[in-house]
Amino acid sequence: IAGITQAPTSQILAAGRRMTLRCTQDMRHNAMYWYRQDLGLGLRLIHYSNTAGTTGKGEVPDGYSVSRANTDDFPLTLASAVPSQTSVYFCASSDRDYNEQFFGPGTRLTVL
Amino acid sequence: SQKIEQNSEALNIQEGKTATLTCNYTNYSPAYLQWYRQDPGRGPVFLLLIRENEKEKRKERLKVTFDTTLKQSLFHITASQPADSATYLCALDGNNRLAFGKGNQVVVIP
């Protein structure tokens, strides 16, 4: 494969449950990002990682955590899901900060 | 406060005409600006990057301008085709991260 894969494609989750969204890239990009996209609000950055072993908070980090154990994987965890986390989640990567970003196909998450 | 504004109303345009989209920003001093295309149910796809010292950038039927005085970028699709129908997002570097506008939908009518 070439690019970014995300899993699952979609998920319905009960409030209070823990959920990890997976993201894998095979382009050896240093930087990776998680966004959520909501109608009327656009893309908002949740967390980012400039390189393996480092992470940072974006615009809307509350309720989410990430890890970057290696270059390829950047999972996003919702420790205790709430209905306001219903959204479409996109993972992206770039070969260095500020360059063009490559996006995955997205995960549609519904929290009931 | 910082803002990136794109027209929330869809742009309906006849095939063959030039579509022009606007991206205005407030309280940013971006070194560059990017444009992405997003189709329904898919992730955004990078189209063009223009730097602050560049007035204009072209790629095939696409043209982008960047006016740091007006704090505005214009995105043009010349000889538009129905396949150009999509939502177009502008993005610029702000607060050390890429900040996206909400996007502007283009509908090309055959």
Helix and strand composition category of chain A = mainly beta
Please work out how many helical segments of chain B DSSP would assign. Answer: 0
Q: What share of residues of chain A is helical?
A: under 10%
**Which descriptor suits the 3D outline of chain A?**
globular
CATH architecture of chain A: Sandwich
Number of domains as seen in the coordinates of chain A: 1
Instruction: Give the CATH topology of chain B.
Output: Immunoglobulin-like
- Whole-number count of domains of chain B: 1
**Beta-strand residue fraction of chain A:** over 45%
Estimate the global geometry of chain B from the Cα principal axes. globular
User: How far is the N terminus from the C terminus of chain A?
Assistant: 34 Å
H/I helix tally of chain A: 0
Largest interface: A-B, 24 and 20 residues
| Assembly state (oligomeric) | heterodimer
As residue ranges, the low-confidence spans of chain A are none
What structural class do you assign from the helix and strand content of chain B? mainly beta
CATH class of chain A: Mainly Beta
CATH architectural designation of chain B: Sandwich
